[in-house]
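F.,

This is the one I mentioned.
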């Protein structure tokens, strides 16, 4: 049976007082293994070691909880631990009942949640990730919860406002469930909000005439490209809020028109390079411009990828 080598203790290195894995060393060792190795056990041990070191590096008392496919780093507070565990269990059931076997196609053996109980610790950790070497993936630009695909893919939440913990876990676990797919950000956020709201798209926005009118004022044939490309979420202003609003209302319309099975297939095929255009035509027999038109009315809502990313900017945030 393959076990971690003694030098694996040196794979976890510290940057800005927080640990992360030296992926070069891990990859070199993994490439040297040629037998049928128990990779699940090896990876679990690596994750557990990282979470323990992570907890030790924080000022307050933290614990690592292992249950039913999850590894959770959270404060030693029974209320917080109970909320996170219960919500994680419920969220997995809800997401898998909606998306079926499309969800949670991970290569890592556990869903990881890191729950910090201090706002400054949260900010420091994001800064640490932004500065760490040997890692890849977009870093969220704001908010107080996010899914991070770099390093050990994990859900990061705050728990200094305990009333928000449930919605944070539900929302971010959806991102975790589909992060292996190249889905466009508008679709990723639309269904994450659906998961967050326990199967309803009603928490942030409704179809009141003033909301629809604001959407129709915001979006035109030029600005709609910021929505399809995902760039709208990178702006901490009204464009961000209206991006969420439009994505949620489009999702509501899709749920009224299509089955969960159709939407699940769409999620599995949609690609951010064309905002899901090809997938929509295959699954729904229409373009995503038609989905937008159902909310915004007549107009040129066609995605135009040639106009995107002219500054080579990755706007993905998974907030």
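My design for it:
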């Amino acid at each position: 049976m393959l076990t971690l080598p003694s030098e694996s203790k040196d794979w976890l290195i510290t940057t800005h007082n927080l640990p992360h894995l030296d992926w070069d060393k891990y990859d070199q060792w993994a490439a040297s293994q040629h037998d049928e190795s128990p990779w699940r056990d090896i990876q679990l041990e690596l994750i557990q070691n990282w979470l323990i070191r992570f907890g030790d590096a924080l000022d307050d008392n933290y614990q690592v909880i292992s249950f039913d496919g999850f590894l959770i780093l959270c404060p030693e507070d029974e209320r917080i631990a109970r909320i996170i565990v219960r919500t994680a269990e419920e969220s997995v059931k809800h997401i898998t009942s909606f998306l079926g076997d499309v969800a949670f196609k991970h290569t890592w053996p556990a869903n990881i949640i890191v729950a910090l109980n201090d706002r400054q610790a949260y900010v420091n950790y994001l800064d640490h990730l932004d500065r760490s070497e040997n890692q890849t993936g977009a870093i969220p630009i704001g908010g107080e919860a996010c899914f991070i695909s770099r390093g050990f893919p994990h859900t990061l939440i705050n728990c200094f406002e305990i009333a928000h913990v449930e919605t944070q876990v539900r929302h971010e676990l959806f991102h975790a469930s589909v992060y292996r797919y190249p889905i466009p950000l508008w679709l990723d956020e639309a269904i994450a909000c659906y998961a967050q709201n326990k199967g309803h798209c009603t928490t942030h926005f409704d179809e009141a005439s003033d909301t629809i009118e604001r959407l129709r004022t915001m979006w035109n044939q030029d600005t709609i490209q910021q929505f399809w490309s995902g760039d709208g979420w990178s702006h901490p202003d009204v464009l961000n809020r209206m991006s969420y609003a439009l994505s949620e209302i489009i999702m509501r319309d899709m749920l009224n028109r299509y089955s969960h099975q159709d939407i699940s297939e769409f999620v599995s095929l949609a690609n951010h390079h064309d905002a899901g255009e090809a997938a929509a035509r295959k699954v729904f027999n229409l373009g995503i411009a038609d989905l937008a038109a159902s909310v915004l009315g007549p107009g040129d809502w066609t995605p135009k990828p040639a106009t995107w990313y002219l500054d080579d900017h990755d706007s993905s945030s998974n907030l």
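The longest helix spans residues 78-99.

Talk soon.
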